[in-house]
Amino acid sequence: MPTxxxxxxxxxxxxxxxxxxxxxxxxxxxxxxxxxxxxxxTAVGRRLAKALGWRFQDADWAIEKAAGTTxxxxxxxxxxxxxxxxxxxxxxxxxxxxxxxxxALGGGAFIDPATRALCRAHALSxxxxxxxxxxxxxxxxxxxxxxxxxxxxxxxxxELLAKRAPIYAEADLVVDSAxxxxxxxxxxxxxALASRGNGSP
Length: 201
Description:
The protein is of the alpha/beta class. It is 48% helix and 12% strand. It has helices at 41-52, 59-67, 71-95, 113-122, 132-139, 153-168, 182-197, and strands at residues 30-34, 55-58, 101-104, 123-129, 173-176. The protein has a 5-stranded parallel sheet.
C-alpha cells in the first residue's frame, strides 16, 4: 500500500459568516470531524473550514489520490486491516501540517486506538452524531461503501453504530447532524466551539 503525501484542499464559495477570533478563544489546533458514514462530515467540514478561513481536507480523498484508486478497490485488493494501517499513516501526515485545518475522517478511522491518540495530540475532535434512520437514508444514495456491501445495509449500519458510538463519544465535542441543512449543522459546530471556549458545558 503506498504511503501518502497528497493533501486535498477545497475552498468553495459559501455563505457562513466568519467568526470573530474572540468568539472562539483557545482554538489553536486543527479540528477533526468523526462519525459514521452518512453523518455529513465532508459537507459540514467544507462549510466549517470556509467559516473559519481554514483549509479543508478529507482523509479518504487523500488516500484515494495517493493510491490512484477508490476506497472500495483498496478494501477489495488488500482488505480492511491493511487499509486501516495506510489510513493511520495518512492521518498522521495530514495532522502534521503546521497550518490549522478541518479534517474529515472516514467512519472507521477514529475507532483505531492509534488514530484516536493522534487526534488527541494534534486536534480537537467533534463527533457528528446522526441516528440510524438518517444514516440509512443518506448512505442509500451511494453504492461505493465497502463495509455495506456484505449484507443488508441497514443491519450492517446498526451493528457498526452500536459498536462505534461509545468510541465516537470520546470525542471532545458532540454535535447533532441528523436534522437541518449543512449550513445549520456547521453553525451548531461553531456554537459548540464557542461554548467550549467560554467554559460552558
